[in-house]
Description:
The structure is a single chain. With 103 residues, this protein is mainly beta. It has one domain. It is 12% helix and 50% strand. The protein is built from two helices and nine strands; from the N terminus they run ββαββαβββββ. It starts with a strand and ends with a strand. The mean pLDDT is 93.
Amino acid sequence: MATDEIDLGMGFKLRFAKWAPDRSIKENRLRYAFIPDVEKISGILTCAHGIEGSIFFDHGPKYREIFNGPWWTVESWEPLTISPSIQTGCCHGFIRNGKWQPA
């Protein structure tokens, strides 16, 4: 799983995770035959207190069958804007225009 990271400001960071099943395995090749790999399937948000939480970006019904939600809608990849808000356990806010905004 490849990752890259963006700094959202205020001590928050988001690492993107790619989804690419090992298609050399027959079961995976058959199960995911018509489902493309995704560069940014999910993100791991690290809050200013060091607590991490995962979010899944909604790429449509095929992916919702594979991964359990909840799902976040990507309104813009550049700069990153998603909805709804995110609750990390200790922090609550939004990612708007590539920046963390407290709720």
